Amino acid sequence: MEPITIIDPNAAHDQWVREHEWHLAMLPDLIDAIVDATLPEIPVGGGSRFDKDQITGGGYLDNMRALDAYTVTAGGRIIGQGAAADARELWYELITYLGAAAQVVSHPIRPVPPIGNTVNADPLTARGEALLAAGWLIDHGDRIAEAPVLDKEPTDLFTLIRHLRGRYGVFPHPRRARLAICQVCGETTVRTWWATSRDGRARSVEVKTCSTCGDEHREDEGTAS
């Protein structure tokens, strides 16, 4: 048994729920940023995100497929092949996890949102669907945490979120900020976030950082000021 569970039998559960929300809270912004990166690099008519070719009857041309031949530009912007592939992979991990979670949550608070099996080519629509999916998963986090059969699906999704958020410059905005008291300076300015373990495994580790004095504690390394 982990030492943390000896002190508080609910600690591992609560930590997983926090990790779960931290990652999923970034998902809508991340999906928006990635799909937006599939837009043509030189926009038409002034640069609106809606300056995309439209087909008869309205609707957006699917840039996920149209720009697959593109890659990273000389200026470092990821478009086409890179962004479209990232969008597809992230969406696949999301719907895989959502489907698996729906199987283990009995009597959900509300029905599972009916999102598409493929990511929408319009950034705002993709963001809206991701928001619905992430919200459902967050709101059922306590019950999902009690299902030991779910391990690979959330781990794969969270690992990919951490990988892509740095690439696309997306940062977390938790729905409910939880600040703790710093054991060094005494200020209530310690925020919790998650990083990839440095031991080479895909698991995430909890990191607590004080914005006042800079003290930082990693779950896998101890304290580093």
Present the secondary structure layout:
Layout: H1 3-7, H2 11-36, H3 63-66, H4 81-104, H5 123-139, H6 141-145, H7 152-168, E1 190-196, E2 204-210, E3 216-218, E4 222-224
Antiparallel strand pairs: 1-2, 2-3, 3-4
Shape: globular
Strand order of the largest sheet: 1-2-3-4
Q: Treating each run of at least 4 consecutive H or I residues as one helix, how many helices?
A: 7
As a whole number of angstroms, the C-alpha radius of gyration is 20 Å
The overall pLDDT, averaged over residues, is: 77
**Helix residue percentage:** 40-55%
How many domains make up the coordinates?
Answer: 2
Low-confidence stretches: 1-5, 41-57, 66-70
Measured distance between first and last alpha carbons: 29 Å
Q: What is the ordering of alpha helices and beta strands?
A: HHHHHHHEEEE
SSE-based structural type:
alpha+beta
- Largest sheet properties: 4 strands, antiparallel
Let me know the number of strands.
4
Beta content: 5-15%
Tell me what the structure shows.
The protein is α+β, with helices and mostly antiparallel strands and 225 residues long. It has two domains: 3-173, no CATH class; 177-225, no CATH class. Helices cover 44% and strands 9% of the residues. It has seven helices and four strands; from the N terminus they run αααααααββββ. It has helices at 3-7, 11-36, 63-66, 81-104, 123-139, 141-145, 152-168, and strands at residues 190-196, 204-210, 216-218, 222-224. Strands 1-2-3-4 form a four-stranded antiparallel sheet. Helix 2 (11-36) crosses helix 7. The radius of gyration is 20 Å and the shape is globular. The relative contact order is 0.15.
